[in-house]
Write a structure and sequence with these properties.
The protein is α/β, with parallel strands linked by helices and 373 residues long. It is built from twelve helices and 14 strands. A six-stranded parallel sheet has the order 3-2-1-4-5-6, with helices on both faces. A three-stranded antiparallel sheet has the order 7-10-11. It has a three-stranded antiparallel sheet with strand order 12-13-14. This is Malate dehydrogenase.
């Protein structure tokens, strides 16, 4: 009997030891694989990012942000193609030299060129900062005519030489209409891949609410910028939420001042760019560059759960906005795709403001097409 007991105990011990031994072998194998992997230069392939108008203020602020991973993530290598006009060639080369001197590990290559074909070749992301600014004494149609010409040419180059899956962000004003022209003249690029920047306005709205409530800006979410990236845009705080110790609360209820929300808040966001120019004697380059990084990062890597951001995208008719217009909506992003947030309640005040901006965009579209003709 004693022999059977000993044998039984040994069998029990072996049955316990076997999983432990197997687990130990698995862990040892994993350590060996990781050790070998560390000696191999195995990582993500670089993404080619085009920045037009790269010698300008926004471009100068933007390209180091891209090269540091602020747009595409801290482990994503990049090759940056910088384009500008011939008159800015020396300045553009200076920007290239500075990028090299910054010794940024994620930067795997940099091209500085005045040739639009070279700049667009292989571009997987295009940030269109270059455009013709409105100068004193210029008529609106004159500015539109110049930008239509520029964006028609850029569209042709992207159509023929960019990567088929290229994602485009238009920053240069009039951003919505410039994006519309790109969409029209680069038909092989999916229209969902062409967007314009209203994230700067979105961020400004977040900043205004955080200052009003004296809370961290990271605790405020779900403002909306509706419409055009112009003074007709409608910054909407109706659906905004603030994270508090007691949980999520309505920003509107916390502010408890509809007069401020419908008046000063809207005006401040609409006129913030002009206020910065008045103060700096230059445009808001740093915040625009930061917003461009935010826009692309959320588009490609996804928006935070439970929140949305504002992007200028091609309308599908949502919220009564004419289909085909490039209009700013609240969107969520997942797997590199954006979706317009549906079902938000629109009050009478908001409806009026949204329609005013849509009307302005229709007028811009008509003007742009007249310039083409």
């Amino acid at each position: 009997m004693g022999t059977y007991k000993v044998r039984g105990k040994m069998e029990q011990l072996l049955s316990l030891e076997t999983p432990v031994v197997v687990l130990g072998c698995v862990l040892l194998s994993w350590k060996i694989v990781r050790h070998i992997w560390s000696f191999l230069d195995v990582g993500k392939e670089p993404i080619t990012v085009l920045v037009t108008g790269a010698a300008g203020q926004i471009g100068y602020a933007l390209v180091p942000m891209i090269a540091r991973g602020e747009m595409l993530g801290p482990d994503q290598p990049v090759i940056i193609h910088m384009l500008d006009i011939e008159a800015a060639a020396d300045s553009l080369n200076g920007v290239k030299m500075e990028l090299i001197d910054a010794a940024l590990p994620l930067l795997k290559g940099v091209v500085a060129t005045t040739d639009v074909v070279e700049a667009c070749s292989g571009a997987e992301i295009a940030v269109m900062v270059g455009g013709f600014p409105r100068k004193e004494g210029m008529e609106r149609k004159d500015v539109m005519s110049k930008n239509v010409s520029i964006y028609k040419a850029h569209a042709a180059a992207l159509e023929q030489h960019a990567a088929p899956h290229c994602k485009v962000l238009v920053v240069a004003n009039p951003a919505n209409t410039n994006a519309l022209i790109l969409k029209e003249f680069a038909p092989s690029i999916p229209e969902k891949n062409i967007t314009c920047l209203t994230r700067l306005d979105h961020n400004r709205a977040l900043g205004q609410i955080s200052e009003k409530l004296d809370v961290d800006v990271g605790d405020v979410k779900n403002v909306v910028i509706w419409g055009n990236h112009s003074s007709s845009q409608y910054p909407d705080a109706t659906h905004a939420i603030v994270n508090t110790i007691a949980g999520e609360k309505s920003a509107r209820e916390m502010i408890a001042d509809d007069k401020w929300l419908k008046g000063e808040f809207v005006a401040r966001v609409q006129q913030r760019g002009a206020a910065i120019i008045k103060a700096r004697k230059m445009s808001s380059a740093m915040s625009a560059a930061s917003a461009a990084c935010d826009h692309m990062r959320d588009w490609l890597l996804g928006t935070p759960k439970g929140g949305w951001v504002s992007m200028g995208v091609c309308s599908d008719g949502s919220y009564g906005i004419p289909a085909g217009l490039v209009y700013s909506f609240p969107v969520t992003c997942h797997n590199g795709q954006w979706s317009i947030v549906q079902g938000l309640k629109i009050d009478e005040f908001s409806r009026e403001k949204m329609d005013i901006s849509a009307k302005e965009l229709m007028e811009e579209k008509t003007l742009a097409y007249s310039c083409l003709n």
